[in-house]
Amino acid sequence: MNYLKTVVIVFFCSIFSSTTLAQKHPSLMLTEAQLPEIRTGVQQYPLLQTSYEALKAEAELALKSPLNVPVPTDGGGGITHEQHKRNYINILNCGVAYQISQDKKYATYVRDILLNYASQYQKWPLHPKRKPNHPAGKIFWQGLNDCVWQVYVIQGYDLVYDALTAKEREQIEQNLFMPILKFLTVDSYETFNKIHNHGTWNVAAVGMTGYVLNQPDYVEMAIKGSKKDSKTGYLAQINQLFSPDGYYMEGPYYQRYALLPFILFAKAIHNYQPQLNIFAYRDRLLAKAINTSLQLTYTNGVLFPFNDAIKDKTYESIELVYGLNLAYADIKEENHLLDIAQKQKKVIVSDAGLKVAKAIAAGKTEPFKYQSQWIRDGGNGNEGGVGVLRAGDHKDQQALVFKAASQGMGHGHFDRLNILYYDNNAEVFIDYGAARFINIESKRGGHYLPENTSWAKQTVAHNTLVVDEISHYQAKEELGEKQHPELLYFSNQPQLQVVSAKETHAYADVDLYRTTALVKLPELHKALLIDVYRANSANNHQYDLPFWYNGHLVNSSFKINAITDNLRALGKANGYQHIWKTAENTLDTQGGFITILNNERFYTTHFTSGEALVVKQMAIGANDPEMSLFPGKGFMLSQAAAKNQTFVSVTEAHGGVDPINETITAAGSGISNLSLISSDDKQTQISFKLKGKTYNYTINYQDKDNYIIIK
Amino acid sequence: MNYLKTVVIVFFCSIFSSTTLAQKHPSLMLTEAQLPEIRTGVQQYPLLQTSYEALKAEAELALKSPLNVPVPTDGGGGITHEQHKRNYINILNCGVAYQISQDKKYATYVRDILLNYASQYQKWPLHPKRKPNHPAGKIFWQGLNDCVWQVYVIQGYDLVYDALTAKEREQIEQNLFMPILKFLTVDSYETFNKIHNHGTWNVAAVGMTGYVLNQPDYVEMAIKGSKKDSKTGYLAQINQLFSPDGYYMEGPYYQRYALLPFILFAKAIHNYQPQLNIFAYRDRLLAKAINTSLQLTYTNGVLFPFNDAIKDKTYESIELVYGLNLAYADIKEENHLLDIAQKQKKVIVSDAGLKVAKAIAAGKTEPFKYQSQWIRDGGNGNEGGVGVLRAGDHKDQQALVFKAASQGMGHGHFDRLNILYYDNNAEVFIDYGAARFINIESKRGGHYLPENTSWAKQTVAHNTLVVDEISHYQAKEELGEKQHPELLYFSNQPQLQVVSAKETHAYADVDLYRTTALVKLPELHKALLIDVYRANSANNHQYDLPFWYNGHLVNSSFKINAITDNLRALGKANGYQHIWKTAENTLDTQGGFITILNNERFYTTHFTSGEALVVKQMAIGANDPEMSLFPGKGFMLSQAAAKNQTFVSVTEAHGGVDPINETITAAGSGISNLSLISSDDKQTQISFKLKGKTYNYTINYQDKDNYIIIK
C-alpha cells in the first residue's frame, strides 16, 4: 500500500472515533430534511412524477397481495427465491410510498412483513439449495442475495422507523437485524473481509444497518474490516477493486453490479459522517467509478459485454440509475449526465432523484460526453487497461473497444487484445458475453452453464488471435492473473485514434501485438477501422483470427465454398468444438474482402496477410447437448503454419438500405488493393486505394512521436 | 361477371363520355383549391410540418446535387437504377416544395431534369439488363419500374405545370410523356391489359398522365382496357384482384405494394371525374382494400409476412401512408386511423395529409380498432380466406393468423392452413417470408433467389402439415391455383375465437382439417392457443408438423437428444434439404412440452397425438451454397406412418423476464396432462389440467351451433 493511501487511512481512523452519529430517520437515500421538497417535486417534475407513480403502483400491488414470507426452499429463479426478492423490493417501495404520501397503510405493510420475518428468521438454517464451496445464505441459496436483501430492507425500515412503536422496533431489531448482522460478520466472516463484489454487498449491508440501528462498532468494521485495520472492508475494497481511473477489473457487467453497494454505502457515510468526505476519497474514486461505468456503454445504452456479461444489460439498469442520480446530486452537477437520466426514463425517488428531475425540468440537459479514452486497469493503474475510441454523433457513432486489461478474476475471459466494434446504433463485431440464462431454473438452476467455460470464455469465441487452437493462458485463471497486456501507444486525436498493445505471456513463445485505429479520411464520411495484428515467434504455429459479427454476409471477393451438408465441428477443444465450419476458402497473397449487411448498413472488411490465406466461415452451435448456445456467425482468417504472421484488415462502413422505401445507397466499398508491404518488430507498412488515391499506412512501433503515419 | 357488376360497368360507360375534364394544375394529390390551407397548415399542424420539413430537406439535397440523367445501364440496386429512382423521388419532392414554398428554384429543377429526360428518352432502347420472358422497361430493367417512375413524375409535372412555358411543356409532353404513353400502352400492351399489379401500375401511369395532359382517350383505355370493354383495365382489376372484403390474393406484402397505384389513380379519377364516384365502386372496394391492408398488420406495425414478403415491411411503408391519408380524407373520417398515422410519423404533403394532420392536432385520435375477422379471398369471395384472431390491448396483443386463402399466383407459398402467432409485440410462431435481398446486386441481382423456390415457398418452411415430405400441390403453382381451402367455422366471440378450415386437394388422398382457437379461461391472464390438426387418409403416410419460432428453447418435458456433431440435412427435397436436424426424441403417448423464451416472455407448447410421437429440433441452413438463408429454429412433430393422424398442441404464454431488474415471474406453465381422448370425422375431444381443474375441449365438426364446447 502506498504512502498516500496510508496517510488517508490514518486520517480516517483518527476522525472516526470522534464522530457522534446523527440519529434521525429517514437518513439514507431519502432524508427528513428533503422530504417536503420531494413531496411537492413528485407533482412538479415529470421524471420524478413518473418514477414515483411507477413505484406507488408497485407498492399498491404489494398491499393487494397476501403477505408471503415462505420458508426458504428454492434456488435461483425458483418460487421462494423470487418471493423473497419481491418482498425486499416491496419493503423499499412501501417505505418510500409511506414517506411521500404519508399514508400509514404502507408503513403497516412494512411493519407486518418485518415482524413476520422477525418471527421466523432465527429458525432458518443455511439454505437447502446452497452450493458446495460457495458462501450460503439463509433467505437465499447464496449469501450474496441475503446481503442485497438487507441493503433494501434496512432502507425500508429506516423509512418507516417513526411509524413503528418502540416495541415493534425492538422485536425487529433484536430478532431479525441483529441476528443478520451476526450472520453477515461472523458466519460470513470470509466474505465480509473479501476484496470482492460479494464482500462489498456484505459491508454495505452491515454498515448501513449499523448506521440505522446506531451500532457504531458494526459501522467501523464495515468500513475498516473485522480487524479494523483497513486491510479489509469498504475502504480497502475501494483501493483494490478499482483502478485509479475507476475501472472495476471484472468488467462492465460486474462493475455495474458492484457499483450499487459502493454508492449506497457511500451515501450513508456521506449523510451520517460527512466529515469523512467519502466522495473525495482516493482522488474522487467513486465519482470516477460512476463515470467509467457510463463511459463503458454504447449510444444505444448497452454495456460493453466483455468478460462474463448478460448481453441485454443497459444503462437503464437500476444500479446505474442510482449511480447517475448520486453522481449528479452529491458529487458534481454535470449536466451531460441528465442526457442519460432522460434515456433511463426514471430517477430514484430520493434526494438525489429530486435534484436530477428538477434539473431536467429546468431544461439543463446537455448531450452526454462520450469519450475516446484509455482506461487503466489494476489497483495501481499499471495492469493494462481498456481503450475506447469513438467517432461521430450520438445518432450514428462508431465505437471501437480494445481490451488489454488484466484477467479480471473468475469472471474474466481469455481474450487478450480483443476488439469490439459498434456503429449505427448496433453491435457489428460482437462479444458473445456469457453462457448463462440468469434465474431460469431449467437452465442449470440459472447459474453459469458449463458452456460458459467450454465456449464463452475461450479465446476463439472472441475477435482475437488464437495460437495452435489453444486459448490464452491455456484458459487457466491462475496463469492469466499473473500477467497483463501492455499499452504501447494510445491517441484520441480526432482524425487518427489509435490503441496499440502487446501481450507476450499468453503463449510461451509467441508475442502478440495489435494496433487498431479509427482513421478519418477526407474521401469518406465514416472512419475506417484499420486493424493490424502481428504474432512473433521463433517457431511455427497455427494462427487463427476470428471476427464474430451481427448481420448477414451479402458479398465477397471470392466464391465462398459453402459446406452444404454434413456439418462438422471446427476442432476438438478450447471452444473449437462448439463451432460449425460452414465454409472454407484459400485466397492468394492479395487477400480479399467480405461484405456484411447489418441494421441496414454495409460493412466491407478487406483483409490480407501478404501470403496465401485461408478464410473460414463459422456458426456457433456444435457440441451443444443442452441446446444452450445462441446462434452466431463469424469469419476466421487462418494461417496453418508460420513463425511471424501479420493479419491486416480494413473495415469500411458504407451506404445503406432503406427498407421502407426499398432504396440502396453505396452498396460497394470504396477501398481496394489492400496490401501488406512489410512487417517486422520496427514497422508494419500497408497500403490501399481509395477513390483512385493510394494511401500508405505505417506503424512505427518504436517511435512514439510518429507511431502511425498515414499519407 | 355477375349482374351487379354488369350494371355498374354499363353505368360507367354511359357517363364516361359525357364528362368534360377539368384542366387546372395541380389537381392530383395536391389541388389548387387546398393550397392556401396547406401552406399555412405546414406551420400549424405538427405532423404536416415535420413531413414537409423532411420533404423540403430532400428537395434541397436534390438542388445541391448535380443533375444526373444517366443512360440506363444497371440492374436493380445498381448505379443508374438507383439514380433514376432518386430522380423521380426528387421530381415529386421538388414539385411539392415548389407549390408550398412558391420558390421557383424547385420548379426550375423539375423543368431542367424533365427537359433532360425529354432530350434523351427516345434514344433509349429496351434496357440492357432486362430479363428474358419478363416485361422490359427503358429507364429500368423492368417495365414495372418505368410505370412507377411515370406515376411519380407526372405528379411532379402537374405541380410545376404553371411555372413552365408553353414551349417547355410541349417539349416535355411531346418528347417524353407521349412516347412513354405509347410505350406503356402499345409496346407494353400485354402488361397494360394484365390483371396483375404490374398492370395496375401501368394503367395508373397511363390514366394519371392522360388526365394531366388532357388525353381522354388514354384515360378511357386506362380505366376500361385497350379495347375499352372493361374486360381489362382499372375497373376490371378492382373486380378481379380483390375479394369483396378488399383482400388482394398475393398476400399482404404485395397488397401493400399494389395498393398505391390503385389509390393514386382513384384520387385522380375522384378529382377529375367525381361523378364516377370511384370510392363507392363495387361497394366501397377501395375503402375495404385500405382497411384490410391495415388489418393485416400486427401492433408493432409489421405486415403479416405470408407468401413472398420481405419481413421488415411495416405500415410505415409509403403506400400505407398514402392509403391511410386518402381513406381518412376522401372516404371516411374514422378517427382510429389517426392512431396509425401517428405511428407512421408522417403524412403525404397533400390535401389528404392536411386533413389527417389537422385532425391529429385537434386531438381526435382514437386507438386503432384491430379486428378479429375472417377475410374472404377470391374475386367473388368464395376462394377461402384469412382468419385473424386477436386478444388483448395494443401494448400486449395476441394475434393468430390462419391462412386458408387461394394460391395467390406466382408469389404464393405452398402453406395451406398455415398459422402465425404473435404476442407481446413480437413474432412467436413465425413465417420466413421470402428468400430475397431486395436490390442488393451481389445477391443474384436483388431478385428472388433460387432458395425462394427451393426453401421459402415449400410447405415444410411453414407451420403446417407436410405429407411424405412432399409440399402441398407438389409445389406447382398451376395445381395450387385450381383449388382453395374451405372455411368450416369462424367465431370472434371474445372468450372463444376460432378458425376451422379444411384443405382436401393438397394431396391426392389426404384430407387436412385444422381448428385453431384463442381460448380465454378465467384462471389465465392470456388466452391459450389451442391447435388441433387432423389428417385423414385411407393409406399410410408420414405426417410432419413444424413450428418455426423466435426465441430460445429453455425447457422441455424430455431430455433433448441433441445432435452434437456431424449435422445432417433433414431430408433430400422440397425444403427438407435446407433444414439441419439438430435433435430427435421419441415420446410416449402422453406427448410432452417445450418452453421457449422470446422477448422476455415464456411460451410453453404442450403437444400430443395420442400415440408415440417423434419430436425433432431443426435449424435452417443446410444446402445453402451461396449462404443466403437466414438462421431460424423450429421443432417438428412427426408420425412416421399413419392413416389418420391428429396433432394437438396447447401453447400458453406465461410469466416473463425483466432483464433490467433480473427478476423472473411464472417460469412454469400452468397447463398439464394434455390428452387426446378421441378424434374422427365428427368430433375431436381433448382434455388438460389447469391449476387443479380438468378442462374438456371438444370440436364438433358437423354441428355449427356447438362447434366447440369447452368445460
What does this structure look like?
Chains A, B: It holds the Pfam family Hepar_II_III_C. Chains A, B: GO terms for molecular function: lyase activity. Two copies of one chain form a homodimer. Helix content of chain A is 34%, strand content 24%. Chain A is α+β, with helices and mostly antiparallel strands and 711 residues long. The first copy, chain A, folds into two domains: 3-361, Chondroitin AC/alginate lyase (Glycosyltransferase), CATH 1.50.10; 373-710, Beta-galactosidase, Chain A, domain 5, CATH 2.70.98. The longest helix of chain A has 23 residues, at 79-101. Chain A is elongated. Residues 17-21 of chain A have low confidence and may be disordered. At the A-B interface, α4, β12, β13, β14 and β21 of A face α4, β12, β13, β14 and β21 of B.
In short:
Two copies of one chain form a homodimer. Chain A has about 700 residues and is an alpha+beta fold.
Task: Using the coordinates above, name the CATH class of the largest domain in chain A.
Answer: Mainly Alpha
What's the architecture of the largest domain in chain A in CATH terms?
Answer: Alpha/alpha barrel
Q: How many H/I helices of chain A?
A: 18
CATH superfamily of the largest domain in chain A: Chondroitin AC/alginate lyase
The most extensive interface between chains reads: A-B, 58 and 58 residues
Helicity range of chain A? 25-40%
The overall pLDDT of chain A, averaged over residues, is 95
How would a crystallographer describe the biggest sheet of chain A? 8 strands, antiparallel
Described by the principal axes of the CA atoms, the overall outline of chain A is elongated
Q: Please give the order of strands in the largest beta sheet of chain A.
A: 7-8-9-10-19-16-15-12
User: What is the CATH topology classification name of the largest domain in chain A?
Assistant: Glycosyltransferase
Count structural domains of chain A. Answer: 2
The radius of gyration over CA of chain A amounts to 27 Å
Distance between the termini of chain A: 47 Å
Total number of strands of chain A: 25
Strand content of chain A: 15-25%
| Strand-pairing-aware structural class of chain A | alpha+beta
The oligomeric status of these chains comes to homodimer
Q: What are the segments of chain A in which pLDDT stays under 50 over at least 5 consecutive residues?
A: 17-21
